[in-house]
Amino acid sequence: MSADNAVDAGRSAGAPRRGLRRIDLLRLGRAALLGPSGRDRVPDAIEHLTKVHRARHPEAGPEAIETLRRAYVLAESSHRGQMRKSGEPYITHPLAVTLILAELGAETTTLTASLLHDTVEDTDVTLDQVREEFGQEVSYLVDGVTKLEKVDYGAAAEPETFRKMLVATGNDVRVMSIKLADRLHNMRTLGVMRPEKQVRIAKVTRDVLIPLAERLGVQALKTELEDLVFAILHPEEHARTRAMIAANAAGPDLLAAVAEDLRKVLREADIAAEVAIRPRHAVSVHRVLLKRGGAELGSCDFGRLLVVVAEDADCYAVLGELHTCFTPVIAEFKDFIAAPKFNLYQSLHTAVADERGRIAEVLVRTRRMHRVAEAGVIALGDPHAVEETPQAAEAEQGASAAETWGRVDPTQPGWLARLLEWQRDAPDPDTFWSALRDDLAQDREITVFATESGESIGTMRLAAGASCVDAAYAVHGEAGHQCVGARVNGRLAPLGTRLRDGDTLQLLMDDSATSGPDADWLEHAITPAARIAITRWLTQNPATADEDKPTSAPAVRPTHAAGQARAAEPVAVTDLPHATVRLARCCTPVPPDGLTGFVIRGGTVAVHRVECPSTARMVTAGRAPVPVRWRDDSPANGFRATILAEALSRPRLLADLTEAIAAQGVGIVSAAVEPPQEHRVRHTYTVELPDPQALAVLMRAMRSVPGVYDVYRARLAVTAAQP
After folding, report:
1. CA-angle at 643, arms to 638 and 649, nearest 5°
2. Contact partners, residue 468, CB within 8 Å, separation at least 6
């Protein structure tokens, strides 16, 4: 079977065509110039359009066809006398755009708006007239794709037009469907433009429109746009790739032989399925060539096999037969049915080798999956037709941010919700334009499971490569400033940790007014929402951003608490006569710690806690311990202790810990801050306590400081204080 016949076989299974029909502009032009063929008749220019629409939507009755007729009459009369740069009557453009959408299965409202999409921008027709004649929905769609005037916006007109369009898409994804079809037809006829303008339009298409088509799942538009952009921006590579495709088409079709073997296997297994060959488009072939390092491609590399079945279960039945009767290439297997892509795409992907060693990639999907794979959101129809029950609305209203964040909603995709969120915080057109391109360049998503106190609270969908910083702003918005740490898969992790698909994440938040992001967060944030929020906070808080950085003060010695004099060292006693007793600074014993002592230079007895590491080292070195004990009449104040606090590095941590210590009426003798390691930092404080019981209270107060995850007594000798 030839490739063309195989594709036709795939269409007979209810699947739309891979490529979109090229419109005969000369024929449309002649029909358009003749105008309507009668008040009650469908104009000749849209006769084919109505046939395609009825084929895709058999339920479309006379009322729908009459609406299309009236829309065409208004568009034709409004654009009459206007010509495109290619020489055709201007009306051929909205007709061609509408036919593209009709072949993708768009419903009547979208087609009506498509016929009128340039009337408000290029003619005297107003939005009020469109609303009065065709209703609010059509008017909204037309307004959504209407460009902003350069006279009013200057150089910002293009980015602000896209911003306006995206905001409109947030309420109705059909706005972007019309824009994508509009750009496809313009790209098809771009040859009449100056080369420099072709390049500029192609680059915007590459950076913005193609990623949007991918995210909306409209593969039929995306693939043709890719090839058109490829031809303009890389003409030599495009010509070479097209030559390779033509040379392969002239040779024997090995993929057709594999397809026939597959049909035989499925017939014997009694699985009803249509098997079609899907030729790769130019950009796809070029990508395979780059993946192979420029090595020569085989015949099977120029296409893939598509298997279309009726039910989900049949997909896995086909997979079982494939992997049983052929040799599977396990590394190529992907299950996008159990785990759909963020653009609703579903299919099983695999690759198998036949007995002759010919390797073929195979896609397995149902008819419904195929329609969505080709037309994406266009195949979903009117988003406002989805019935919403009061129970569903109540559940949505009571859901947490983490629960609603990753929800797959065809009328409001998660990526679009995130884009709309951050664009509000990017008032500068240049910032918006660059951030939009960066956002759309992140073409993969991961799913992260949010937890709280060990319990799962929902899922989040984040851009691949997102860090804990990105997750904080994704879930909490501006409150992401208050994130002081994270647990990834149950373990404390730096905020810069890159999340992976399937990770569990608990964000540790601090609701105090002192919390704020560090400038280092910009190194970890990849999403525009996070980067814009962090940059704005750092701009508004320049002093706070640079304050209290541990790296700038590896060792500091705060003064005593106000009104508190440095007290005398607590007293322990030894049985050695006339010996001076001194508490060791490495472990700073406090009653009721167990004690032991060692004679050091000058006859002084250094008193250590029994569990101090110095005690074991001295005994091993042959030093004899000296019995010591606390005095029964120890003073009521002046006990000194060394405490270590381990925390996640953040601004104002030192100030907050010092404040917590002073609030307990404890004086600070000295403090040292070690340079942070992987965003973790250790503070060492030597304090004077009013009484031994104050130690436990102080340690609890220090643990309550946001970001602090461990507080303990000194266990290791401090070099400067080694007795």
Report:
1. 140
2. 483, 486, 488, 493, 494, 495, 496, 497, 499, 505, 507, 524
Contacts of residue 375, defined as CB under 8 A and 6 or more positions apart, other chains included, come to 16, 104, 105, 217, 218, 220
Calpha distance 98→92 (Å, rounded): 10
The first and second tokens of residue 414, run together, are: 């998660």
Catalytic residue set: 121-122
Q: Is 276 exposed, middle or buried (0-12, 13-18, 19+ CB in 10 A)?
A: buried
DSSP classification of residue 677: B
| CA dist., res. 327 & res. 425, Å (int) | 53
Specify the pTM: 0.66
CA 71 to chain centre: 39
* C-alpha–C-alpha distance, residues 344 and 459, integer Å: 17
pLDDT along the chain (723 residues), means of 10: 34 41 50 50 78 90 91 92 87 92 92 94 91 93 86 78 86 91 93 91 92 89 94 94 90 88 93 92 90 79 92 93 91 87 87 88 93 86 55 41 40 68 76 80 79 70 86 85 84 85 85 70 86 84 48 38 41 75 74 79 77 78 81 59 84 83 82 77 83 82 87 56 35
Our CA dihedral for 25, 31, 33, 37, rounded to 10 degrees, sits at -160
**Residue 539 amino acid letter:** T
Rg from Cα positions in the chain: 35
Q: Report the C-alpha gap between 58 and 611 in whole angstroms.
A: 85
* Sign of the torsion angle spanned by Cα atoms 658, 664, 670, 671: negative
Burial class (CB within 10 angstroms; exposed 0-12, middle 13-18, buried 19+) of 194 = exposed
